């Protein structure tokens, strides 16, 4: 049976930035990213699925407290990690203090996407927190920043109210700009590695 992940704030899955701020104020690690075997294993599987040994520039939106960021950092020349919660950004900066090539910033999606291009974008447990109506626009914005030949890695826990990992996987894989390199369907999460083949 898939492990249950709690809803610590008790407010459902479509949260506003203010909801996330309150969540991290109450608990600096609300999903137990640092201690959970489920989260540790998911991070290791995610990084093991990267098809290239090293990337020039990586973008990780929704980085939370930086546990995945720390594991991605050795594989990237530059890494931009962002989160909508000021407290999460603060914790992620502490977590990645030893990596001079990592920058952690506050940004609210989908309106505050970064400038420039990236050859790796990692969307880990992010998309189902956004209203369904915003997903196509966010994917448009993300994919416009992914270089041709660059890789998009997307991880979604399953199940979730409203959006299951399967739904999100199908949404991404239907994009004509992307070619699927790998798909993993675990009992508790879905993972896709997709390569940008056009804009």
3D structure, described in words:
With 199 residues, the chain is α/β, with parallel strands linked by helices. It has 6 helices and 7 strands, in the order H-H-E-H-E-H-E-E-H-E-H-E-E. It has one domain (17-196): 3-Layer(aba) Sandwich (Rossmann fold). 29% of the residues lie in helices and 28% in strands. The chain has a 7-stranded mixed β-sheet with strand order 3-2-1-4-5-7-6, sandwiched between helices. The longest helix has 12 residues, at 37-48.
Helix fraction, binned, reads: 25-40%
**Number of structural domains:** 1
Strand content: 25-35%
- Kindly report how far apart the N and C termini lie: 40 Å
Q: Which secondary-structure class do the elements indicate? A: alpha/beta
Taking all residues together, what is the mean pLDDT? 86
Series of secondary-structure elements, N-terminal to C-terminal: HHEHEHEEHEHEE
Q: What would CATH call the homologous superfamily?
A: Vaccinia Virus protein VP39
Biggest sheet strand line-up: 3-2-1-4-5-7-6
At CATH level 3, the topology is Rossmann fold
Q: Estimate the global geometry from the Cα principal axes.
A: globular
Give the uncertain stretches in residue-range form. 1-12
Work out the number of β strands. Answer: 7
CATH architecture: 3-Layer(aba) Sandwich
> How would you sum up the major sheet?
7 strands, mixed
Task: Tally the helices.
Answer: 6
Rg, rounded, reads: 15 Å
What top-tier CATH class fits best?
Alpha Beta
